[in-house]
Write a structure and sequence with these properties.
By secondary structure, this protein is an alpha/beta fold. It is built from 14 helices and seven strands. Bound molecules: NADP nicotinamide-adenine-dinucleotide phosphate (NAP). Belongs to the short-chain dehydrogenases/reductases (SDR) family.
């Protein structure tokens, strides 16, 4: 049973017990309330329970028969799981893979039915995107393209001073221009089906932590693109939805990979910049990266469940943030003044003084 259903049922039980028996401490609370306040108390509890119960009722879904879905980045992670799940539900899945000859694509083919097609696609390559569109048109048969899921993505966990401009460009090219390229390629087919575009953004696109500049910039841009597209496509009855996960354990957050990338970028950083920070600072930074990545949630299916809902429900939400604690945290942080959110992020990501600041007066701000 879902967590929300349990809370709603417990609340309903409390209402019944309190109403009938008025046990301590409720009797004290209720006696202190005037009779109208008591009524408000019951009504408020009832409304909360009904809203919670309502939110857990399964939403009506579309019929998967004759519906095709194109997904990018199916080699691993969310995209891979989504492709398998949609295939099992009866959709015709076109699984875009960056490396169709590698293990990820092969295991996907083995796990799925004959309906699933592996489509080679590097979303940074105009020609490959056009080829993918052509492949789908040639193999879609009597089916209609119901949804595309722009899921391919790359990340970096790197301070700005040792994140090269090429790294910024690469992240933008995959996460932003890749999404733009693929969407523009498939819109004519989606117009025929009045289907939907699902863009995998991130909570990092709503607020930015230290070492997240390149990734957050790309996901903010992805959200802006989705916002404009949603409004522009309303006239064609095409829905546009964003999925905005927090931190999850998938290959994009593999510690060794992100640490190696940092070491490589650090080695390529000008020596005067490295001297200002010092090796001790860099090592402390890497330790902090490791600590942060250990907090990634292993429950990848929370995200895939939301992606399924975005593809399958008749009336999907515009925005999905998987996991209630991420939703709550996002709500609080986005309503905090910058001064406080900066403090909060600095506390979550503490690093030592850079070498060049060590001799300075402690009153001189360091961050
Ligand atoms: N995991 C998280 O914490 C998290 C949080 C928020 C948002 N997201 C977003 O979720 C999406 C899926 O990521 P994931 O967590 O499932 O990680 P993932 O397993 O690394 O998935 C990303 C996929 O994109 C592919 N890819 C990379 N560059 C590509 C390119 N140029 N063209 C086509 N495909 C490319 C990767 O292929 P290779 O494996 O061959 O590189 C990989 O299969 C990404 O957009 C990511 O930004 C993830």
């Amino acid at each position: 049973m879902k967590f929300r259903t349990c809370v709603a049922l417990i609340l309903l039980n409390i209402i019944a017990v309190v109403y009938m028996y008025r046990p301590w401490p409720f009797s004290v609370v209720l006696e202190s309330l005037a009779s109208t306040s008591e009524l408000y108390f019951y009504v408020a509890l009832l409304i909360i329970s009904v809203v919670l119960l309502w939110s857990t009722i399964p939403k009506p879904r579309v019929d998967p028969a004759n519906k095709a879905v194109f997904i990018t980045g199916c080699d691993s992670g969310f995209g891979h799981e989504l492709a398998v799940r949609l295939d099992r539900m009866g959709y015709h899945v076109f699984a875009g893979c960056l490396a169709p000859d590698r293990e990820g694509a092969k295991s996907l083919k083995d796990a799925a039915s004959d309906r699933l097609h592996i489509v080679p696609i590097d979303v940074t390559d105009d020609f490959q995107v056009l080829q993918a569109v052509k492949y789908v048109k040639d193999h879609i048969g009597e089916n209609q393209l119901w949804a595309i899921v722009n899921n391919a993505g790359v990340a970096a966990f790197c301070e700005i001073e040792w994140c090269s401009v090429q790294e910024f460009q690469k992240i933008m090219d995959v996460n932003v221009f890749g999404t733009v390229r693929v969407t523009k390629g498939f819109l004519p087919l989606l117009r025929q089906s009045e289907g939907r575009v699902i863009n995998v953004a991130s909570l990092a696109g709503r607020f930015t932590l230290p070492a997240f500049a390149a990734y957050s910039m790309s996901k903010k841009a992805c959200i802006s693109f989705s916002d404009a597209l949603r409004q522009e496509m309303r006239k064609f009855n095409i829905k546009v939805i964003t999925i905005e996960p927090g931190l999850y354990k998938t290959p994009i957050t593999y510690e060794n990979y992100l640490i190696d990338r940092n070491r490589k970028s650090w080695a390529e950083t000008p020596t005067d910049v490295r001297a200002d920070y010092g090796e001790e600072y860099f090592d402390a930074f890497l330790k902090q990266v490791t600590i942060s990545l250990k907090q990634a949630r292993p429950n990848v299916m929370e995200v895939v469940d939301n992606m399924i809902e975005a593809v399958c429900t008749k009336n999907p939400s515009y925005r999905y943030v998987p996991y209630w604690r991420y939703r709550l945290r996002a709500f609080i942080i986005s309503n905090l003044p910058v001064y406080l959110s900066d403090k909060l992020f600095a506390a979550r990501f503490p690093v030592i003084q850079p070498e060049s600041r060590k001799s300075k007066s402690p009153k001189t701000p360091t961050s």
